[in-house]
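Why does residue order matter? Because the sequence determines the fold. Keep that principle in mind as you read this record.
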Amino acid sequence: MDTIRQAVGGGTEVHPTAASVAAEPYYQLQVNAPGGEAILLLASVQGGLESWYGHDGQAVFLRNGVLVRTVGLEANLDHVAFDGGNPFASGLQHVQAPIEYRRVLDWSPGYRYGITAVAQLEPKGVESVDILGQVRQLRRYDEHVRADGGGFDVTNRYWVDPADGFIWKSRQHVAPGQALELIQLRPYREART
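Structure:
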C-alpha cells in the first residue's frame, strides 16, 4: 500500500477501481495531495475518532468527517477543537443557511498552538460526484476558516450526502499552505439522524 508520506511528496498515483476496493475486506480512504496519492486503511474507531493508517505509520484522524489530527506529514495538524458548537457533530444535512463558529487549532512544526479561528460554513448546491464509477448527488458545503494570528485563511470543501450528512469527499487544510483531498472509497458509516 502507498502511504500518506508518498502522497505529500512522492509523486505516487493510485488508481483504485470498484473491483479493487471490493476485493479487499478493509474500509479504505483515498488521500490526494499535490505531490501524489495514497490509500489508507481504517485501523480503529474509538469514541467516534476514526484512525486511518498507511503502512509506514503515517495517519489521518477523522471525527464526523473532519480532519482533527495527522501524523507523518511535512506539517501536521496536532489537534482541532470546536468552541461554542460543532455543526459536523449533528450532521451537515441540518445546516440550511450560513452559520459561524470557532475552531481552536494546533499545528507543528513551529509550535503554533491554541490558534483560534473564525469559521463560516455555507451550504451550496447539489453536485454530481463520481466515486469509483458511481455518480452521487452530494451537497457541497464551503467552510471559510480564518485565524488572524496564525496566518491561516483557507476554504475547506465538503461533499455531503443530503439524506444523512455523511461526508463522501472533502478538501481540508491540515496547516497553512497544505491541503488534503479525502475520498471515501469503502466508508465506515455510523448511523445518523
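The longest strand covers residues 112-131.
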